[in-house]
Design brief:
The protein folds into two domains: 149 residues, HUPs (Rossmann fold), CATH 3.40.50.620; 77 residues, Uridine Diphospho-n-acetylenolpyruvylglucosamine Reductase, domain 3 (2-Layer Sandwich). It is an alpha/beta fold and 311 residues long. It has a six-stranded mixed beta sheet with strand order 3-2-1-4-6-5, sandwiched between helices. A hairpin with a 2-residue loop joins strand 10 and strand 11. It is built from twelve helices and eleven strands. The longest helix is centred in the last third of the chain and has 30 residues. The two termini are 36 Å apart.
Length: 311
């Protein structure tokens, strides 16, 4: 099992918890840490700290560097989205190289609540409402799991106190100019204080309920996408329009969400209104083309839809 360890409280608690299970469950553990090069000397110090922790715990550790800022400029994507993709690419390739069939990451129930609320505010469908999955495929040979997804951050902190285990503090986690941090430090506390003290719990329950509905919708959307798909590449996708106009708007919308996921096009800036605009385009004869976030254009050619992303 490959364990993602940033050095923060959650990932350190995950590693220490798995260490307690190493012998009873006969686990073979490795750790992985990615230096995003976004915080200068602090990021380097995090990597050194994680390496030292793993050495004390007798856990092999892979550490790599990703020039996230440069990657974001090259791909014209946001820093947070680029950093997330770089992390998962690193975990995927490391797991394959080290023959690890499971990758464990340390997202908690608080992270799930924040994720669902973020998606709601940005505009989302069932896929966004389900939040993060407990388990999903990372590659043909590897599954990603989130064993702490039902654990609240207060429990994580108490566990570390009981162990006497320190951890690294990321100063950028307090930067409320970042949307995720404003949700965590300002909006959610205000919702708990002024509206419902159990709002985090209810957001997690919403995610669980949406997951069941989304699974059925995803199966139907994948089937329809396969039927409509003429061909696809990294930057260009061609679809049969007539296949899409025969079904409900909601299913057509989910088809495009699944398409974006398949070709790894940026979805962060795609709000509900953008997906609706795309469905409107499919169902009408005008205009001849539309532009969407992420440098994506959609054109109509007879009975064919051509979706293209600028490289």
């Amino acid at each position: 099992m490959l364990v993602a360890v940033s050095g923060g409280a959650d990932s350190v608690a995950l590693l220490r918890g798995l260490l307690q299970l190493r012998e009873p469950l006969q686990l073979t553990l490795r750790a992985a840490h990615l230096n995003h090069q976004l915080r200068g000397a602090d990021a380097d110090a995090d990597a050194d700290w994680v390496e030292a922790l793993c050495r004390r715990c007798d856990v092999p550790c892979d550490i790599e560097i990703a020039p996230v800022r440069a990657l974001a400029e090259q791909t014209r994507r946001g820093i947070e989205e680029t950093a997330r993709d770089a992390r998962y690419d690193f975990l995927r390739t490391t797991a394959v190289r080290r023959a690890c069939d499971v990758v464990a990451v340390a997202h908690t129930a608080d992270d799930q609540a924040e994720t669902v609320l973020h998606h709601i505010l940005r505009g989302t469908g069932l896929t966004g409402l389900r939040g993060m999955e407990w388990s999903r495929s990372l590659s043909d040979s590897t599954r990603l799991i989130r064993p702490m997804l039902v654990t609240w951050r207060t429990g994580v902190e108490q566990f570390l106190v009981e162990l006497g285990q320190d951890f690294r503090q990321d100063a950028t986690n307090q930067d409320v100019s970042l949307t995720r941090n404003r949700l965590r430090h300002e909006l959610l506390p205000r919702l708990e204080q002024d509206f419902n003290p159990r709002v985090r719990e209810h957001l997690c329950q919403l995610a669980e309920q949406a997951a069941g509905c989304e699974e059925a919708s995803r199966i139907a959307a994948d089937t329809l996408l396969d039927a409509a798909l003429l061909d696809q590449s990294e930057h260009v996708v061609r679809l049969q329009r007539e296949v899409l106009v025969k079904v409900s708007r909601s299913l057509t919308r989910e088809v495009f969400v699944r398409l974006w996921q398949r070709v790894n096009w940026p979805r962060q800036a795609m709000t509900f209104s953008h997906w609706e605009r795309l469905v409107d385009f499919v169902e009408s004869d005008q205009p001849a083309a539309i532009d969407l976030p992420g440098l994506i254009s959609v054109r109509r050619r007879a009975n064919m839809l051509v979706l293209q992303r600028e490289p």
